[in-house]
Design goal:
It contains 4 helices and 10 strands, in the order ααβββββββββααβ. The chain is of the alpha+beta class and about 160 residues long. The protein has one domain (about 1-159). The chain has a 6-stranded antiparallel sheet. A two-stranded antiparallel ribbon has the order 1-2. The protein is globular and about 40 Å long. This is DUF3515 domain-containing protein. InterPro entries: DUF3515.
Amino acid sequence: MAAAVVAVGGCASPVTVPAGPQAADPVCAEVLQALPGELAGGQERSIASQSIAGWGEPAITLRCGVDVPGPSTERCITVESGDTSVDWLALEADDEMVPDHARRENGSWTFITYGRVPAVEVVVPTERGGDQPTGVLVDLATAVELTTAERTCIGADDV
C-alpha cells in the first residue's frame, strides 16, 4: 500500500506558485532543507519555483522570501513548539495582503511571518486545515525559526 501512495504522489503535478521577491535569500535554502517531508497527512510534492514547498492535494504551500510585512493591525498569533516561537499574521480571505494564488474558490487560510527576515508565507486550503489550521504552523516552526526575528507581536496591553 505504501508503494501505491508513493507512485500516486510521484505523478502529482508540481506545485506552481510564484516565487517571492527575496526567494534567492540563502536563509530560504536553509528553511527548505529543514522542512518536514509530511505535513497534515500530505507528502511533500515537487515544486516549480525557487524557495517553495508543498504538501498533499490540494497543496498546503510555503513560500520563503515574500515581502516582509510592516507594522500591522492584522491579527497576530504566536505559535510555540518546544523552545521555538514564531509570530504570524493571520490574514482574512479578503485582505489585500493575501496573494492571488491563495484566493481559492473553496477558501484558504493565509499566514505570513511577522517580524522575520526573510518572511515566510503559508497557505492552508480549507479542506486541508480542519478545525485547527494553525497546527500546520506548529509543525513548520523549527524550520521557520531559522529566519531572523527582528520584531514580535504586541497586544493591546503592551502599548
